[in-house]
Each structure stands twice: as C-alpha cells, then as structure tokens.
Amino acid sequence: MSVQYSVSVRGAWRRVLAVAGSLAIVGAASAQQVSTQPRAGALVTPDPSGLLQTSTPTGSIDKGNPFFQSLGSNGRTCNSCHRQAEGWTVTAAGIKRRFDATRGLDPIFALVDGADSPLADVSTFAAREKAYSMLITRGVIRVGLPMPANAEFTLTAVDDPYGYASAAQLSLFRRPLPATNLIWDTAVMWDGRETFAPFEPPMDAGVDAEDLRSSLQSQALDAVLGHEQAASPPSDDVLQQIVDFESNLFTAQLFDKSAGALNEFGGMGGAHILAQQKFWIGINDSLGNDPTTDPFDPDVMRLFDAWDNPDSAMNRDARVQARAAIARGQQLFDSLPIAISGVAGLNDVTGQPVIQGTCGTCHDSPNIGNHSVGAPLNIGIADGSRRTPDLPLYTLTNNSTGESIQTTDPGVAMLTGKWADIGKFKGPNLRGLAARAPYFHNGFAPTLLDVVNFYDTRFDIGMTAQQKSDLVAFLSAL
Predict the structure, then answer these.
(1) Coil, helix or strand for 220?
(2) Which of 13-27, 70-84, 168-182, 199-213 has the lowest mean pLDDT?
(3) Which pTM was predicted?
(4) What pLDDT shows up at residue 31?
(5) Contact by Cβ (8 Å): 177, 401
(6) pLDDT for 137 beyond 90
(7) 220: Cβ–Cβ under 8 A, 6 or more apart, which residues?
(8) Are 404 and 436 in contact (CB under 8 A)?
(9) Residues β-bridged to residue 166
(10) What are the backbone dihedrals phi and psi of residue 425, each rounded to the nearest 5 degrees, phi first?
C-alpha cells in the first residue's frame, strides 16, 4: 500500500548519501583471524558491550570546533550533552559519574533544563541530588513548551511531582539525541520541532540535504540560546562550523566483548563501513513510498549475513557462537512476525487495524534503522498507563468530543495542536545503541533487554528467552 505524504521530496531521493574519500572498508570481507581487541584512542572508545568507533574525514576529532566551546553564560558546550564515548549523547551512568565527581557543579547541571524544575533548590549537595534526579537517573533534560494555540484539545489536569508544569509550560523530559549519523535524519528532534520547512508533521516526506543543513543550524542556534543561555546568537559562521562537524561524524559499534571485531569474517560493523551506506529520502519505505518505486525489502539489516552459521552450536569457539547469535538476532529483526496494531501514524493512516510486519516495518532504512521518511509514530511509550511516579502526567480533553487521554508527553501534538498527534515521536537511528542507554525518548528502558521486552509485551509477540538474547546481541553490535 502506498501512502501519499503531504510534501514533495523535491528530488532529494536522487542524492545518494555516501562518504568515501579516505574512508576505507576495514576487513569487511576478510577471512583473517579475529584480531585482538583494538586499542581505545581518539576515535575508539569503550562502552558496555565493547568498543565504539567514530569516523571522521580527517581521522581525528577537531576539539577546536565551536562544538566544544562555551558560547553562552552557564559554562555548557554542545559537548556537555553530546559525549563521544556515550554515543554522542549522554547516558544516565555517565551523568551520575559527573555528578559525583563535581558534587553536582558540572555545567550540565543547570536549572534552565537540567533540573526537574527551574525553581528547584540547588544550594547544597543533597538539594542538587534531588533537583537533578531525572537527569541523573534517566539521562533526560526538561523541555519546557507551552500549550499550542488553537489546539484541538485542552489541558484539563496536571499531576507534576515537581510542582512546576502548567499550560504556560509543560515539563517534558526527553533524552538528548545523538549528534552523529545525522546525514540520515528525516526529522530533527524527537518531535521534529527543529526540522526546517517544509516539515509538516505527522506525515512528511522528510528533509532533503539543503533542508537538513538548515534544520541542524536552527537546532544549534536554539541550543546555544536555550541550553547554553547565550545573551546573543552566535554568528552564522560559528553555527556552520558546528553543523559541519556534526554532519561528518559517523558512529557504530566496532568490537564486541563476546564476538570480537565486528568487521571481520565478512562482518560489516564499525563506523568506516557505515559512512559509506547509501541513503535517500524514502529508501525502502515499508508503505511503498520509495521514489525509485522499488518494493520494500524486509531484509533491512544485512551487516552480519556472513555470520549466519547453522553449525555454530557444534563449534566450541565462544566467539563463533557469539557471532552466530548476532546473525540470528539480525534475522529476527528482519523476519520475526509482529502483528502491529494501535500505532497512531501507521495503522490509522493506512486504514489497517493490524499490519503484519517486522522490526523493519518501522526501522526501514537499510543498515541504519531509522524511518526513511519523516513519519512520527505513537507506540505507547508516553501513555498514561506507563507513567512512573517520577514523570508528570497530563490529562488532555478533546474540544469536540469531550474524550480525555492521559499522557506523560504529548509529543508532536505540542507543535501541531492535533488530537491525532498526541504521543507521536520520531524513531531514532539505531547505530551505536550499546553506548547510549537508557532508551526511548524519556529513558523508559534502562537496557536493550528492556527495549526488547517492551516490544514483546506491547505487540504480544511471544518471544523466547533465546530470541530475546539474540536480538539484544544484534542490537548491541550495531
């Protein structure tokens, strides 16, 4: 079925994004012996699953870029919330270490958005530990947005454990998105609010190269003025330098503690190979909107095809078995049947109450894993039924029907004012997942196993323990 999006791709699909130049494929089809663990260094950093690799055109990280400079009044830089070793975002564990090391005085701990409430007491260590609890435990910042004008709904009740949120400014707790692998973004920010026109949520073709650059520049500007609390905007040249830096970062898992190097024996892991991945807006769109008119290919992930080893159980080599588990997980990602239902932005748009799909139905960009068009979805993460006591709860009432819904974050609806958009968010890029826990927009899932468990229960898949383990092994290798 083909769904027509509201905005033309304006020829963007013709531009195949590929970075070659000096970036070489490292042993993608090599039959050599698995190497010893690579050394950590400027471009390779340890993470819970092994080693994460970042690739740049120069082979180094330009620490002189304004990305690493304080451009505002509170000491923050872009790097405060986008750390290389944490997948170019931040992790709850990493933030906790910074809090303990600085007694809560690191620049990331700023009242403007780092605290549970901008009015919180931060006068003592104990007060700061309480004030920045959401940042420390979930790795989320507080995004303050007012109720949209002329919305189709009204805010009829607020239950904010921090006593601040109101219609004038809802407190929305969200994870900083990675500042890497950006050339494949089809929307900027969880709710798309920084996506340059002609983005029209909830259904949009996505952003072409020119629009994406404008979007990222707008995001950088607002980050400096908001997160860094600058008194005046930086120059266009400074913003362009930040965007140039971010747009040339590619990040992926390079080494797995169990499987070894992810780019050997035919494996295609690592950032160097990722940097050459082709992409265009709508590529392999599962709803038939690939502008090439090619049909959807359910084999979305092909990184570890060569590791598919039916005889691995007979091999006593632990690394052979670990590679086989990753390959099985990839196969599950591509082929495990999922009866997709109740997903706003998908089931309602297609008119199909149940779509027989797979993980790749929504994560359809080949070997990348985000949605290849700008189509935010509501999979239920922000539903009131999943609210935990540390999150605010908002009751929204439909102005026309009187129906009420409870949510911890209205998502895209905060921009459009549309009832149908409540709870919708974009799907993030999946590469480098192991380095950047917790997961989902609000840090709902502490681990990748929690992510898998969410989908298993949400769509009543009935996965076995082995299948869950294999999927986690695959996701950790991305």
Answers:
(1) helix
(2) 13-27
(3) 0.90
(4) 33
(5) no
(6) yes
(7) 78, 239, 242, 243, 246
(8) no
(9) 169
(10) -145, 160
Segment 64-92 shows an average pLDDT of 98
Number of Cβ atoms within 10 Å of the Cβ of 7: 16
Distance, in Å, from the CA atom of 418 to the CA atom of 33, rounded to the nearest integer, reads 56
The two structure tokens encoding residue 425: 């968010």
Q: Looking at residues 42-69, what average pLDDT do you find?
A: 96
Per-residue pLDDT, 4: 33
The SS3 of residue 437 is coil
* All residues at 6 or more sequence positions from 339 whose CB lies less than 8 Å from its CB, including other chains: 354, 355, 356, 459, 460
Structure tokens at 95: 């933030």
Q: What is the dihedral of CA 401, 402, 408, 414, to 10 degrees?
A: 50
3-state helix/strand/coil string of 112-179 = CCCCCCCCCCCCCHHHHHHHCHHHHHHCCEEEEECCCCCCCEEEEEEECCCCCCECCEEEEEECCCCC
The whole-number pLDDT of residue 36 equals 60
> What is the length of the chain?
478
Quick check: helix, strand or coil at residue 49? coil
Nearest to 259 by CA among 30, 50, 406: 50
Sequence-separated (6 or more) residues with CB below 8 Å from residue 36: none
Cβ–Cβ contacts within 10 Å for residue 155, how many? Answer: 17
Lowest-pLDDT choice from 192-206, 210-224, 454-468: 192-206
Name residue 52's beta-bridge partners: 45, 253
For the chain, the average pLDDT equals: 90
Q: Which residues of 87-112 are buried (b: 16+ CB within 10 A; e: fewer)?
A: bbbbbbebbeebbeeeebebbbbbbb
Give the mean pLDDT of 263-270: 97
Tokens of 343: 């997903």
pLDDT value of residue 38: 74
Contact, 439 vs 140, CB < 8 A?
Answer: no
Q: pLDDT tens across 216-235, in order?
A: 999 999 999 999 999 999 99
